[in-house]
C-alpha cells in the first residue's frame, strides 16, 4: 500500500503482526472447540494461549528456513509451549487458518468502512438540506438543460451512497464465512462440530461447502461493492471538477490557508483532491478484475490467487477508506457560489425554458411538430442574434398572452416538486 493513502485505523489491521495474531486467534478457537467436545485434554487451549509466542524476527527466520509461512508461524507460536503444542494446528490445513483469519480481517475492515460511510452520508444529507431550494442549471451532455436545485444534485449523490451502504452491509454478510474443514474441505481430520464451535467464537459462519479454501466468489463480490462505492465518490468528484472550472465556478473544493495550487502560477486553485479521488477510483476498479480472476482456481485449490490477494485486499480497503475520509472533508469544506449559479441560469438567454414554451403552445392547440419547429427556430435565432428567447416569443408568438409568456420564463416553476422528492427520504 502507498503510505500516502494509508490512514488509521485501517492501515494497522493489515500489518504482519496483526495478521499473525489473528492466525493465533483461529488456532486457539479451534483448540477450544476440541476441548469442549472432549477431543483434547482440558486446559490445552488455555496453556497454548498463555505460552504462545508472536515474534516477527523469529517468524522471518523460520520462514526463511521453511519457505512456508504457516509452518513458520506454527514453529514460532509453539516454541515456548509444552505438551499442549501437540494439539496446535491439529487436523488443520494452512488455508483453514489463513482464510478464516482473512475473513475476520475483512469483516473488521468492512466495519471501519461502514462507520466512515455513515459520516459521509450525514454530511451529504446535511448539505442537501442546506441547498434544497438553491436554483442551479441542470446539464445533460454537458449542455444547459433545465433548472433544478443544487440540493437535488446532492440528494442524488446521497441516494446512491445510501444504496452502497446497504450493499456493503450485505457484502459484510457475504464475507463473514470461515472454514475449518481440512485439506480438501471434507472434514476427514477435523469434525464439522469443531468448525461450528470455532467459527462461532470468531463471529463467522461456516462455509456451506468449501474446498481447501473459502470460495473466492465471496471475495469477488466484496471487492466489487468496494469499487461501486469508489465509483460513487468519483461521480461526486467529477461533478465538482466541472463546477470548479473558471468559466463555471459554481462550487469549489476546500483550499486551506497556506495551500498552493501551482508551482508556476500563484493564482491557481486546482481541484487536486477531486482529481486524486478520480484516479484512486480507477485503481479500485482494477481490483475487481483481479478478484474475478481469483475465483477460477484448479480443482480444490491452487495458490495463483494468493499473491494477488496480498495486494488487493489491503490496498482496496485502505484506498477506499482514504477516499471516504477525504470525500467527507471535501464536502464539509465545499465552497458554493450561489450567485454564479443564478448568473449561469441566464447564460443561454432563456433557451432553458424551451420545453415549457413548446408545451404551452401544444396546450393552445398546436401539433407537437408545429410547436417544436417554432420554438426551435426561435431558439436558433436566439443563438444567432443574441436576443432572449422571451423577447423573441413576445414578438413572434400570438397564441400566448404577454402574461402567459412571462410565466413560462419563471425558474421557480422547476422546483415545485422538490419537497415531494425529499419526502421519499422521510426520517433520514
Automatic annotation (TrEMBL):
Record CDD domains: Adenylsuccinate_lyase_1
Signal peptide location: none
Record-level Gene Ontology MF annotations: (S)-2-(5-amino-1-(5-phospho-D-ribosyl)imidazole-4-carboxamido) succinate lyase (fumarate-forming) activity; N6-(1,2-dicarboxyethyl)AMP AMP-lyase (fumarate-forming) activity
Catalyzed reaction equations: (2S)-2-[5-amino-1-(5-phospho-beta-D-ribosyl)imidazole-4-carboxamido]succinate = 5-amino-1-(5-phospho-beta-D-ribosyl)imidazole-4-carboxamide + fumarate; N(6)-(1,2-dicarboxyethyl)-AMP = fumarate + AMP
Highest taxon of source: Bacteria
Listed Pfam families: ADSL_C, Lyase_1
GO cellular component, one term: cytosol
Pathway stated in the Swiss-Prot or TrEMBL entry: Purine metabolism; IMP biosynthesis via de novo pathway; 5-amino-1-(5-phospho-D-ribosyl)imidazole-4-carboxamide from 5-amino-1-(5-phospho-D-ribosyl)imidazole-4-carboxylate: step 2/2; Purine metabolism; AMP biosynthesis via de novo pathway; AMP from IMP: step 2/2
Its EC number(s): 4.3.2.2
Keyword terms: Lyase, Purine biosynthesis
Chain ranges of the Adenylosuccinate lyase C-terminal domain: 349-426
SUPFAM superfamilies: L-aspartase-like
KW Lyase (keyword) present: yes
GO BP annotation list: 'de novo' AMP biosynthetic process; 'de novo' IMP biosynthetic process
Family: Belongs to the lyase 1 family. Adenylosuccinate lyase subfamily.
Protein name: Adenylosuccinate lyase
Native species: Pseudothermotoga lettingae (strain ATCC BAA-301 / DSM 14385 / NBRC 107922 / TMO) (Thermotoga lettingae)
Biological classification of the source: Bacteria, Thermotogati, Thermotogota, Thermotogae, Thermotogales
